[in-house]
Amino acid sequence: MTACPCGSGRDYDACCGPLLARKAKAETAEALMRSRYTAFTKGDVDYLEETLRPDTRDDFEREAVAEWSRESTWQGLEIRSTEAGGPADDKGVVEFVAHFSFQGKPQVHHETSVFAKDGDTWYYVDGKMGPPPRTVQKVGRNDPCPCGSGKKFKKCCGAAA
């Protein structure tokens, strides 16, 4: 038994192995994300290209991806959050952090990725570097205080502002 590189805690043959062997398809956006990370660790550039949505493959730089995969020492994957992307969904978002060393220097790849499903197949669509933007909810002075006290914001936490 070999632990899967994706960090799921499962055996490779019960996790990403069947996907990279093309014997199964990812059931969720997160499963595809994990399998793509594993493909980087294994140098499976074909899988990385195949799991790109077909209309986004034009700018796939095969040699650059192969070099990055081959020259990196992959150290772990953290899934920070997922939004939708389940078996019944058509779209999903996965925020992840991949830890690796490139040319002996520790690196972190933090990305929020968008996935789309066509039929029964999930594809990677696009990603943005870094965490997703924070959203801040504005509280009006006469609104209930978000601390849960039951008082108006202006008479509670907003009194000091």
Structure characterization notes:
The structure is a single chain. It is built from four helices and four strands; from the N terminus they run H-H-H-H-E-E-E-E. It has helices at residues 17-20, 29-42, 45-50, 62-71, and strands at residues 72-84, 91-102, 105-118, 121-129. It is of the alpha+beta class and 161 residues long. The mean pLDDT is 92. Strand 1 (72-84) and strand 2 (91-102) form a beta hairpin. This is UPF0225 protein YchJ. Pfam families: SEC-C, YchJ_M-like. It comes from Caenispirillum salinarum AK4.
Topology of this protein?
Blueprint: H1 17-20, H2 29-42, H3 45-50, H4 62-71, E1 72-84, E2 91-102, E3 105-118, E4 121-129
Antiparallel strand pairs: 1-2, 2-3, 3-4
Strand order of the largest sheet: 1-2-3-4
Q: Which descriptor suits the 3D outline? A: elongated
CATH domain fold name of the largest domain = Nuclear Transport Factor 2, Chain: A
Rounded mean pLDDT is: 92
Q: Which spans have pLDDT < 50 for at least 5 consecutive residues?
A: none
Report the span from N to C terminus: 58 Å
Going by helix content, strand content and strand pairing, the class is alpha+beta
Helix content: 10-25%
CATH class of the largest domain: Alpha Beta
Based on CA atoms alone, the radius of gyration comes out at 20 Å
As for the number of domains, it is 2
In sequence order, what are the helices and strands, one letter per element? HHHHEEEE
The total of helices stands at 4
The largest pleated sheet is described as: 4 strands, antiparallel
CATH architecture of the largest domain: Roll
Extended strand count: 4
Looking at how many chains there are and whether they match, the oligomeric state comes to: single chain
